[in-house]
């Protein structure tokens, strides 16, 4: 079986968030003697593309509205990713030093059209086309409706919603950018008077998945305007919990961290990494270290950090380290808080892959007070590195973290998204930290949890098979 993943991001080539981690891992876990899982992504101008070699495998031009754009398909020379990868290069449109910006409609449409045009030339079409997020949301529509892609009508496609907050809306005035289709079906593109690629994908894909079972349930009542659509399409929707790539995220071999360790030498390992962080960020090693890694946006509950941190800082029982960037109204107060709080709180505003690994390894607790969390990978990375997650019980966080008050519980969970509930959760963590025996037992317990992609990669294969060979009742 040949599976083609189409995505805007893929680790380690281009990463903005968890989408990259998923697309950089799932194909690796799907590949076997009988399955060949490959990725098609845009060719960006970034560190990875600047420092690697690529080979042209195909070139042609696409029609985007009235404009003809040249494109090439490139592949990676000396590929050690564990799966085949192909890049769509449309020099005039896609090849930019960013992944997302205000020109996404044209860029991702060009990407999808070039990818499908190229696949149309294959001797054998793929068995499954798996699209990810709204940047590839018009693919299921084009496969079903565009005259030029008629050959794909029998090829099952599946669409994964990584985050329903972002839908890729654009005006009907741009409908001419989409390759010619039967205009009687233009309604498939519409949701609320705009072209909505996410809604279109939910309508047209053979199967729709999202990245945790709880998020799938939550979407029926909170999907940024798509609630009724998701309810009416519920029969083809399923939540499949993401996994993590345990070869990349392995504290025993992780090249980014200061001290490698396993559960056998966890005390030495974690203390070496904590010491590195405390030295680098001038924090008190003797206090429990609370960290946050992520986008500084409302979804992540990051707007509540300035007030929550003020209380935690006043109590003087903890050290706090934050890594992230995002909206200025959240970022600025977090930066202002740095003044006068040296030694207790520090923040690295920006994106730093190596530092994130060091924080998973060196922190005692990881904060994730998300308002919305379709899956969340950070908590699973934290668990693998023996760092106890403090999460709001929502979406994938609810599906992966069990509160210490429950039997075999190992995390700290809270229900509310308020400053007092975050502070209260931190105080519960500090109490746990003072009971060092219990705290260390939990660290060992969480490092042994298996969140690798093994199970879910197979669930996807089973889903593909059910689409290829439906059981007629
Ligand atoms: P989301 O995709 O919603 O941002 P996830 O939890 O699925 O959240 O994945 C976030 C990924 O991005 C993780 O691999 C996390 O370590 C990484 N990450 C987020 N912010 C940063 C940052 N500022 N620096 C380095 N890595 C980051
Ligand atoms: C999205 C979600 C996040 C999820 C990731 C990977 O970015 O916000 O919760 O883990 O996709 O599926």
Describe this structure in words.
Helices cover 34% and strands 20% of the residues. Helix 11 (328-336) links the parallel strand 13 (319-326) and strand 14. The chain has a nine-stranded mixed sheet with strand order 3-4-5-2-1-6-7-10-11. A six-stranded parallel sheet has the order 14-13-12-15-16-17. A two-stranded antiparallel sheet has the order 8-9. Helix 10 (305-315) packs parallel to helix 15 (419-434). It is of the alpha/beta class and 473 residues long.
Brief write-up:
The chain has 473 residues and is an alpha/beta fold.
**Residue windows where pLDDT falls under 50 for at least 5 positions:** none
The amount of beta strand, in percent, is 15-25%
| Number of E strands | 17
Return Rg in Å. Answer: 23 Å
User: What shape does the CA trace take?
Assistant: globular
Query: How would you write the strand order of the largest sheet?
Result: 3-4-5-2-1-6-7-10-11
What is the end-to-end distance? 25 Å
Give the integer mean of the pLDDT values: 97
The helix count comes to 17
Largest sheet: 9 strands, mixed
Helix content: 25-40%
Query: What ligand molecules are bound, each kind once?
Result: adenosine-5'-diphosphate, alpha-D-glucopyranose
- Which structural class best describes the helix and strand composition? alpha/beta
């Amino acid at each position: 079986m040949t599976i083609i993943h189409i995505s805007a991001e893929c680790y380690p080539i281009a990463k903005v968030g968890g989408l990259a981690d998923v697309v950089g891992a799932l194909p690796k876990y799907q590949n076997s003697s009988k399955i060949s899982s490959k990725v098609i992504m845009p060719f960006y101008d970034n560190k990875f593309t600047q420092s690697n070699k690529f080979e042209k495998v195909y070139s042609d031009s696409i029609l985007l509205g009235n404009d003809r754009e040249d494109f090439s398909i490139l592949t990676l020379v000396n590929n050690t990713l564990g799966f085949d990868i192909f890049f769509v290069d449309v020099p005039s449109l896609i090849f930019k030093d960013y992944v997302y910006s205000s020109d996404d409609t044209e860029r991702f449409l060009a990407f999808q059209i070039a990818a499908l045009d190229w696949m149309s030339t294959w001797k054998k079409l793929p068995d499954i086309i798996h699209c990810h997020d709204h940047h590839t949301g018009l693919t299921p529509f084009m496969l079903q409706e565009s005259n030029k892609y008629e050959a794909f009508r029998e090829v099952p496609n599946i669409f994964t919603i990584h985050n329903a907050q972002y839908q890729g809306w654009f005006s009907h005035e741009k409908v001419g950018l989409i390759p010619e289709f039967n205009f009687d079906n233009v309604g498939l593109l519409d949701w609320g008077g705009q072209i909505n690629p996410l809604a279109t994908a939910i309508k047209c894909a053979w199967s729709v998945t999202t990245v945790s079972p709880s998020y799938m349930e939550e979407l029926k009542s909170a999907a940024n305007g798509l609630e009724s659509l998701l309810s009416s399409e519920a029969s083809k929707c399923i939540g499949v919990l993401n996994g993590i790539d345990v070869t990349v995220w392995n504290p025993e071999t992780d090249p980014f961290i200061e001290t490698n360790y396993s559960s056998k030498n966890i005390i030495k390992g974690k203390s070496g990494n904590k010491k590195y962080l405390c030295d680098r960020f001038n924090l008190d090693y003797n206090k429990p270290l609370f960290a946050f890694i992520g986008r500084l946006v409302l979804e992540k509950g990051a707007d509540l950090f300035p007030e929550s941190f003020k209380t935690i800082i006043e109590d003087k029982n903890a050290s706090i380290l934050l890594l992230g960037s995002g909206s200025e109204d959240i970022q600025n107060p977090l930066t202002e808080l740095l003044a006068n709080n040296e030694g207790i709180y520090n923040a690295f505003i920006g994106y730093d892959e190596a530092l994130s690994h060091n924080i998973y390894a060196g922190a005692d607790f990881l904060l994730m007070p998300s308002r919305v969390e379709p899956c969340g990978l950070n908590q699973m990375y934290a668990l693998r590195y023996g760092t106890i997650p403090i999460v709001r019980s929502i979406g994938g966080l609810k599906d992966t973290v069990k509160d210490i008050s429950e039997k075999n519980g190992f995390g700290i969970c809270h229900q509310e998204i308020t400053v007092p509930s975050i502070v209260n959760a931190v105080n519960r963590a500090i109490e746990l930290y003072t009971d060092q025996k219990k705290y260390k037992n939990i660290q060992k317990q969480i490092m042994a949890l298996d969140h690798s992609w093994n199970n879910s990669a197979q669930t996807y294969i089973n889903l593909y098979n059910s689409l290829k060979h439906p059981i007629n009742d």
